Amino acid sequence: MLIMQAYLFTYGSLRLDTELKMAKKLSCNCSLVSLGFVTHAKLYKIDWYPAVIPEGDINDIVVGDVYLLDDEEILAELDEYEGIGVGEPPYEYRREKVQVNTENGNLECWMYWYNQELPKGAQVIESGDFLNP
User: Fold this and answer.
1) Three-class secondary structure of residue 96 per DSSP
2) What is the CATH number of domain 7-124?
3) Of 50, 80, 84, 96, which is most buried, counting CB atoms within 10 Å of its CB?
4) Where do the domains of the chain lie?
5) How far apart are CA 94 and CA 82, in angstroms?
């Protein structure tokens, strides 16, 4: 089913240059729009994947890829991938719309925030870029 200009901001395992199956599906079935960033957010490495939490100030940024979603069904698959609706709440991630700064101006995008207390040993990624820490 087609949707009207829905965008997704990816910052970790779903980024363009990752080799994971869901990232490849996203890049093959949706249109890459731009590199972008969100402010007032911090990126952490919690295992082989990242977590973003809304904290900090305008200088705290997270870098990622912005996709135009061609089909709303992919959101349900992404929710499952991110663990939304799996197990007991609170789920590991939550999906919300955020303002993303891009070279083409600001876009309202879906984004997955980490939705639990950060585990011990979580490391902040100072660069805000999971692919280039």
Assistant:
1) strand
2) 3.10.490.10
3) 50
4) 7-124
5) 8
Q: Could you give the percent of the chain with pLDDT greater than 70?
A: 97
pLDDT of 121 strictly over 60: yes
| pLDDT tens figures, 40-67 | 999 999 999 999 999 989 999 999 999 9
Token pair 């996709």 is found at 67
Give CA–CA dist 30/100, Å, rounded: 18
Which of 105, 111, 92 has the alpha carbon at shortest distance from 40?
A: 111
The yes-or-no verdict on residue 2 having pLDDT over 50 is no
Pick from 99, 104, 114: nearest CA to 37: 99
3-state secondary structure of 9: strand
Place of tokens 């249109």: 31
Residues facing residue 51 across a β-bridge: 44
Q: Residue 4 is which amino acid?
A: M
Given 3-state DSSP classes, what are the helix, strand and coil percentages for the chain, each rounded to the nearest 5?
A: 15, 40, 50
Q: How far apart are CA 66 and CA 109, in angstroms?
A: 8
C-alpha–C-alpha distance, residues 112 and 133, integer Å: 19
